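Acetamidase, Streptomyces griseochromogenes. Tokens?
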Amino acid sequence: MTDPRILTVRPEPDEYAWTFGGAPPVARISPGTVLDLYTEDCFAGRVRSEKDLVSQVCEFPFLNPQTGPFHIEGAEPGDTVAVHFVSVEPARDWAASTTVPLFGALTSTHTTASLQPPLPERVWIWQLDRTRRTALFRAQDSDIRLELPLDPMHGTVGVAPANLEVRSALVPDAHGGNMDTPEMRAGVTCYLGVNVEGALLSLGDGHARQGEGETCGVAVECAMNTVVIVDLLKGVTTAWPRLESDTHLISTGSARPLEDAFRTAQLDLVRWLVRDFGFSELDAYQFATQAAESPLANVCDTNYTCVAKLRKEWLPARETHRGLHARLRETARALRL
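Tokens:
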């Protein structure tokens, strides 16, 4: 096996993409390329202290900067891009989280309007200990100090949408985007259906950790140093983003209302069982009903995202996505970066 090509990308502040679709590629890569990337946090690095309110230091709609897009040679509609996360590591010793007026799951929003004032705007700076792998929470209204384990992930991974659409990097949908699922961590392969020539892959929105649902709308947001391997499955369609870990198959769905996101993820999991594991549709429906786990990813974005996941050990011994996850895991183990 030949060593994969490694491309290092450290964007300048004016070199990020703010949408999926509509942005020119920063590079053309061949399948099998290793990308060694820096991604900025969702605030473009502007929230650095408890005094830096989002409404004052950030300019809407320039939120959630993405590193990319990358044109993948040979990718065309009907194919699937595979993105294997080799490592996801915080690039700084601190991260930021906030409340944002009229944003989040437990407040009035522009689309769920009610007659009450917005929640106050506040910033929490989390101290990250990258050696001990912890994130320190410091309460603002008491002397409470609590450590949580680091669990780095990417909130946003996606390709250009179909039908000539350009979507804000804040929006999750069938193209991927701002799904905000904690499942998008090192060791996982993400499968994205190709909608345009070259796919136009981008990623960003690093989280040092995030609870399921991202309730207040903002995770422990941080810049990341991330290494991924990008590959291509010709002739394999993927309607909604899928993830594969060593232990689970994971389907996603993004929509509003929340039950539609749930239904989309569950239906995709059923169809995955039918396509690759020999189930009939009704047998897959019954089996998934009794075996699936259904974490929430986000209940705050423009579309909500739900996950449906199933343990591989409970399934027939069959190959999925041409065994690509296992091969990419082996490549990742062999890398010395």
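The chain is about 15% helix and 35% strand.
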